[in-house]
Automatic annotation (TrEMBL):
Keywords: Ligase, Membrane, Peroxisome, Transmembrane, Transmembrane helix. One of its GO terms (cellular component) is peroxisome. This is AMP-dependent synthetase/ligase domain-containing protein. Its main location: other. The chain crosses the membrane at residues 33-54.
Length: 243
């Protein structure tokens, strides 16, 4: 369930983070039924950016799409980021590319470094969000000096880390990442029990992520408390596959 002011805030977040203008071209590779893909679609509509839709990933045609349509913005996930530099993509055909954005699951620092070394003229940004926050809540340009960070919390959102008893912990102390702000969901529709489990007593959303926040406000995800993982952008419960 979303709150009443969701639309205005969502639009504001998109405008601040996706850096798209009316003279640029983005690749619409992500499914629009995901918050990330929907954000790209809405941004293109708001800014007049040309959005090139890709029905299906075909390795042999992937790099040709960039050169044919002069793609400047590539919004993707770590799985496809790997495909950029695994040898199947002709990097010389990506000359028009200026920005890469990743979200849904974190790209490891080694992969980020490989991409930046392979594509010298691009700027890469990483974003973090959840379905329960309706869009991204952290955002940063990839900085290899802060390897592993998902960035700082966006304006008008708040983040904190709590211990096992629900107490606030200090900087650089590991605990569960919790979020608060106007884009956080009101709850799971028709499921009071799940809603109560998702929030702390003082109303903060429990992300299920083990994390820490450093002295400059940069957040680092260490592990998962919950058994849900992202696989190709989808939520998968690994307990269903463990024996």
């Amino acid at each position: 369930m979303c709150k009443n002011n969701y639309k205005e805030i969502h639009a504001s977040i998109i405008l601040r983070t996706l850096l798209m203008l009316d003279n640029e071209r983005a690749l619409g590779q992500l499914p629009f039924f995901h918050a990330y893909g929907l954000g790209v679609l809405l941004m293109a509509l708001c800014q007049g950016t040309t959005l090139i839709l890709m029905k299906k990933y075909i390795p042999e045609q992937f790099s040709d799409i960039f050169s044919t349509y002069k793609i400047t913005h590539f919004h993707t996930v770590a799985t496809f980021l790997r495909k950029l530099i695994d040898g199947s993509t002709e990097l010389e055909k990506l000359k028009s590319l200026r920005y890469i954005f990743t979200s849904a699951c974190a790209a490891d620092p080694k992969l980020q470094s490989e991409v930046l070394n392979s594509l010298k003229n691009i700027k890469m940004y990483h974003m973090f969000g959840m379905t329960e926050t309706t869009h991204v809540v952290t955002y940063q340009r990839v900085n290899l000096n802060r390897a592993g960070s998902i960035g700082r919390i966006l304006p008008f959102m708040k983040a904190k880390v709590i211990g096992a008893q629900g107490e606030n912990v200090g900087k650089d102390v590991i605990g569960e990442l919790c979020l608060s702000g106007p884009t956080v969901m009101a709850g799971y529709y028709g499921n009071k029990e799940a809603t109560e489990e998702a929030f702390t007593e003082d109303g903060w959303l429990r992300t299920g992520d083990v994390a820490k926040i450093d002295n400059e406000g940069y957040i680092y995800i260490i592990d998962r408390i919950k058994s849900l993982i992202k696989f190709h952008g989808q939520q998968v419960n690994i307990s269903n596959y463990l024996v």
